[in-house]
Write the structure tokens for this entry.
Amino acid sequence: MAVTQSNVVTACKLLIGGKWLDSSTTEYGTVTNPSTGEVIARVPMSGGQDVDRAVTEAHKAFPEWAETPAVERARIMMKFRSLLETHYEEIAKTVTREHGKTIAEARASVSRGIEVVEFALGIPSLIMGQSIENIARNVDCETIRHPLGVCVGITPFNFPAMVPLWMYPVALTCGNTFVLKPSEKVPLSSCLIAELLLEAGLPDGVFNIVHGGKEAVDALLTHGLVKAISFVGSTPIARYIYQTGTAHGKRVQSAGGAKNHIIIMPDADVAQTVQAIQASAFGCAGERCMAGSLAIPVGKAADAIVPALVDAAKAMSVGRTDTGSQVDMGPVITHEHLVRVTSLIEKGLSEGAQLLIDGRNVKVVDAPKGFFLGPTIFDKTRPGMSIVREEIFGPVLSVVRTDSIEEAVALGKDCPYGNGAVIFTNSGRAAREFKHHFNAGMIGINVGVPAPMAWFPFTGWNNSFFGDLHIQGQESIYFYTQQKMTMTRWFEQTKNKFQDPIWKARG
Ligand code: NAD
């Protein structure tokens, strides 16, 4: 079946029971192209009725899908993977159109998503249990992993294809059915990819999509047939999802926001470090939960690094991304977000930080209504300032100068988040100290964005994650399955089992 976007150009439909359906709501939001500000689709703001339809279909589809052998489930995912490759450019362009990433960033994000499918293809091995003979005399013991039932994914705007792909390939291959509620700001990529799941042969009702915001989310969090919830988004909502979901008896993994530290030691390679920080702070216009937004030079490191960072930022081109033109940075997601980031820059100035490069007045002549902001760097910032404490989620880098690695590491202790932290150094000793002591769950050593690939978990700490089992890697298999332990003893009924007629018949 050819992939068409006809169902998503005007108003997005819901995918329920294998069919694209209209929502029962009359309330619609809009999807905009951030490069131009133009409305490109309408999105239904579903309520409890749509959610109930989707969850009920997913629940109906569960028994047969759960009984489908793991190898057969994996084969469908293999077909899905190949379709993702075939439609790679189309997906990347859709991501760019609705989100504003450069096409290179969009492609990379699709590749990261495909890797999760590749991870899930190993399901027969990944899902294996354990067994032991004679754990007690004549008693054998084994564990087997079973799927949970209906699982739900609620996702943010910043990776329209990749973050949903963190979730459902694993959930589905484990034998669960799934209801996705993509961000209402970027629902188009998920609708496009869902067509590929159907084309790959996924049975009706195994994967469903509902749209909307809080009302849809609340209906999912409290629905009696939902077993597990995967969430990625901002910290206040992540906390709310965890608290509400668990209070309603769901298994929840809930990833939140971040403020990621980049420590630069005096012995770091300047050129490579600057290149890595530039990509980390300004890549995807800073709208990444692993974006490095605090540069923390230690001692004399600042002398070389700070001017070089300013030069690198000044050299970056900012522009529309939807026409395929080669720019270094695209727009931020919405006008409201542009206003928020701008107001945080103003707050930084009013709190006494020194603005080295100001992205507020960037002009994009061929797209005057786009939501553009240039790279922005503050120097002489101090702990306690809003731009140092708050997640900005835009292309703003704050430099906090420190005198020692201990002082730099201590900054992490005060940070309420704990997603990623990075050190640039040539000293194994400094790297080890940092790795051991820094208060964050994902560490980079001379790596600007230490976002793990699909085979490793996304191990945020503190207010960057609520739950026990993280997204991705083996932990995701544990999250989407429950164990059954079986203890077995067969009684000896005859003294000599070879007298038994069954054994005699076998010769
Ligand atoms: P968001 O929290 O505003 O929205 C995320 C999802 O929650 C959306 O689907 C949205 O519809 C829903 N939602 C919004 N408000 C809600 C409410 N009041 N009640 C219930 N549901 C609600 O996040 P966003 O702005 O779309 O995404 C950016 C955030 O996501 C940033 O904070 C970023 O750090 C974070 N993020 C974290 C990770 C990670 O792995 N930790 C990855 C990507 C993004």
Observations:
- The chain has two domains: 4-257+460-487, 260-445.
- Residues 260-445 form a domain with the Aldehyde Dehydrogenase; Chain A, domain 2 fold (CATH 3.40.309.10).
- The first helix runs from residue 48 to 67.
- DSSP finds 17 helices and 20 strands in the chain.
